[in-house]
Specification:
The protein is mostly helical. It has a single domain, classed as ABC transporter involved in vitamin B12 uptake, BtuC (Orthogonal Bundle), CATH 1.10.3470. The protein has helices at about 15-35, 45-70, 75-90, 90-95, 95-120, 125-145, 155-160, 170-190, 190-200, 200-205, 210-240, 250-260, 270-290, 295-320; strands at about 150, 165, 170, 240. The strands form 2 sheets. It has a two-stranded antiparallel sheet with strand order 1-4. Helix 5 packs antiparallel against helix 6 (about 125-145), helix 9 packs across helix 11 and helix 12 (about 250-260) packs across helix 13 (about 270-290). The relative contact order is 0.20. Mean pLDDT is about 90; it is low at about 1-10.
């Protein structure tokens, strides 16, 4: 009996829309940007935009796997970001910056493992499970530091994270490297096919001997790990952290995933398109700032785009079901 399920690939109006929407959106945004501000297309501005969004981009990469396997979303992301950041800085004086960073990653990954067990093995609703674990972890982090700020120490590791290579910030390089690893993981490996199969039809995947519980749990473990990496890098680059450091990151990540064409209902998605979604989200935010509009407009615009994208996804799914 086969242990992998490869979903059928058919060209439909929905898939065509998904493939073309990101390139078209980026070209349109670049064109609008050149009209709004002469500084928009400068290398320094574009690099700054990427650097400012690389942190949440890491989370969006993990959230792609959560959505693809039918896990909806991980709402515990802010807590895992906070735990990763607070542990990294809080443990520096005891174990050194390198080991402290590893501890920060480990703590956030444990949060992901807890989510994975609750959702993948105990079959608890993902929204309820991650909302619960996120609340517990965030409360724990606030108890550890009393809601205050934890400051770090200068170190070669923090200098490296704040630096650049070939004129590109290290933050952006790390985002690019993680994306380069995860793109083929989802599109070209058995594990990626398992995620698509589980999200497409859980019962059929289970009947085909796909390790459905392990697959679903792994998506949340991966997101916990990447949220921890985000927290570690933010802590080292800023030199300080507080429990609210990751607030709102989960919604920005979901926005990038949805804009990238990954279905929140599972069964389809692409890490490469999520990278495109991160870029689109970043460009929208930058255009709003350069145009002089209130920064609150970013949420209004991206929220409207998410509603439209989800609506289109639902429309094409229902149309495919009728056909």
């Amino acid at each position: 009996m086969s242990t992998s399920v490869a979903p059928a690939r058919t060209r439909t109006p929905g898939t065509l829309f998904t493939r073309l929407s990101i390139p078209i959106a980026i070209v349109v945004l670049l064109a609008i940007g050149t009209v709004i501000s002469p500084s928009f297309l400068t290398p320094s501005n574009l690099i700054n935009v990427l650097n400012a969004n690389a942190a949440v981009g890491l989370i969006a990469l993990g959230m792609t796997f959560v959505a693809v396997c039918g896990g909806l979303a991980d709402l515990s992301v802010p807590a895992n970001v906070a735990m990763g950041a607070l542990v990294t800085l809080g443990a520096q004086s005891f174990v050194g910056p390198g080991l402290a960073a590893v501890m920060g990653l480990l703590v956030a990954t444990i949060g992901g493992i807890i989510n994975g067990v609750l959702i993948g093995y105990l079959r608890i609703n993902p929204i309820i499970a991650t909302l619960g674990t996120g609340s517990v972890l965030l409360g724990l982090s606030q108890q550890l530091v009393g809601g205050g700020i934890v400051y770090g120490e200068a170190s070669p590791l923090s200098d490296f994270i704040k630096g650049s290579a070939l004129g590109i910030p290290i933050f952006v390089w790390i985002f690019a490297i993680v994306a380069a690893i995860l793109i083929p993981l989802l599109s070209r490996t058995a594990f990626g096919r398992w995620n698509l199969a589980v999200g497409g039809n859980y019962q059929a995947a289970e009947a085909s001997a796909v390790p459905v519980r392990f697959t679903k749990a792994s998506a949340f473990v991966l997101t916990g790990l990447l949220a921890g990496l985000c927290g570690v890098m933010l802590a080292l680059s800023n030199g300080q952290a507080r429990p609210i450091i990751g607030t709102g990151y989960e919604f920005v990540a979901i926005t990038a995933v949805v804009i990238g064409g990954t279905s929140l209902f599972g069964g389809s998605g692409s890490v490469l398109r999520t990278v495109g979604g991160v870029i689109v989200t970043a460009l929208i935010g930058n255009l709003i700032i350069l145009s002089g509009l209130p920064t609150q407009s970013t949420g209004l615009v991206t929220g409207a785009i998410v509603l439209v994208a989800v609506g289109i996804d639902v429309f094409f799914r229902r149309k495919a079901g009728r056909e």
